[in-house]
Amino acid sequence: RSFCSRHMSVSQCCQQTLTFHAYDIKWLPQSCRVVTVGMYARGTGAIQISEIDDEGMKTIDQVEKKAPFKCLTFGTSKHAMRQFASGDFEGNVCVWNVEQPHHPLFSCKGHSSLINAIDGCGGTGIGEGSPELVTGGRDGFVKVWDVRQKDAVLELSPPESSTLDCWAVAFGMETLFFLS
User: Fold this and answer.
1) Which of 38, 53, 150, 157 has the most CB atoms in a 10 Å sphere around its CB?
2) Distance between CA atoms of 101 and 88, rounded to whole angstroms?
């Protein structure tokens, strides 16, 4: 029997017009908010925090940065901390506070160019493991970061003659997955 059913449907609960090209959007865990990242037509980066209420979706905050953003994750943060990590077109890895997204809490040059994918795991509480990110870039590298320090804790490099991008990364149960 097929996994898909003829009775499945997708319902729209609300919509919002954006003034930029969205590359990634994620629900803020345990909230009615979403964070969207992308690029304005002038080539700058966009972070938008929106909230859904009884009247629909409204913008809470919008930030413009020098470099466009490609990806984001909430994976390294406890829900109460309201932090997300992003990867941008210039290879920067940043961690942001959703409540005050105008200046990153953590920032470093992660890749030589575009970061295609980012994922996170862990947390900052006792017994939750270290807050780690994994990024995959156009340079073919896969890098694992402990956001408490500026340098990657692990770098997986592409073969010498390779021109492959890394397109997807994910943490799993004691496993790191990536697709080049």
Assistant:
1) 38
2) 15
Alpha-carbon gap, residue 136 to 110, rounded angstroms: 9
CA distances (Å), 81 to each of 28, 61, 77, 96, 100, in order? 11, 17, 6, 10, 12
* 81: Cα within 13 Å, side-chain hemisphere: 16
Half-sphere CA count of 145, side-chain side, radius 13 A: 30
- CB contact at 8 A, 94 and 85: yes
The CB density around residue 150, as the number of other CB atoms within 10 Å, is: 13
Write out pLDDT tens, residues 123-176. 645 556 678 899 999 999 999 998 888 899 999 988 887 778 899 998 876 666
Nearest to 70 by CA among 94, 85, 86, 83: 86
pTM over 0.90: no
Looking at residue 67, its amino acid is: A
Measured over the CA atoms of residue 75, residue 99, residue 150 and residue 127, the dihedral's sign is negative
Query: Long-range contacts: 101-105, Cβ < 8 Å, 24+?
Result: 101/47, 101/49, 101/61, 101/63, 102/63
